[in-house]
Amino acid sequence: MSEGEGTTFMQWRERAQNEVREDRPKMRAVLVTAAVVVVVGIVVGALFLALG
């Protein structure tokens, strides 16, 4: 991976906070929804592996 490729969680969080500061509620809703989907996916995947 070259420099500038990929995004760390901290960079993503900082960008999300900047979007909120710029008062873009639609973008904030998209980011929150994406975060919830990721967390739910991880939990479901972990349960599936644990029970499988």
UniProtKB/TrEMBL annotation:
Residues 1-21 are annotated as: Disordered. Residues 12-21 have a biased composition (Basic and acidic residues). Keywords: Membrane, Transmembrane, Transmembrane helix. The chain crosses the membrane at residues 29-51. This is Uncharacterized protein. It comes from Saccharopolyspora cebuensis. The lineage of its organism: Bacteria, Bacillati, Actinomycetota, Actinomycetes, Pseudonocardiales.
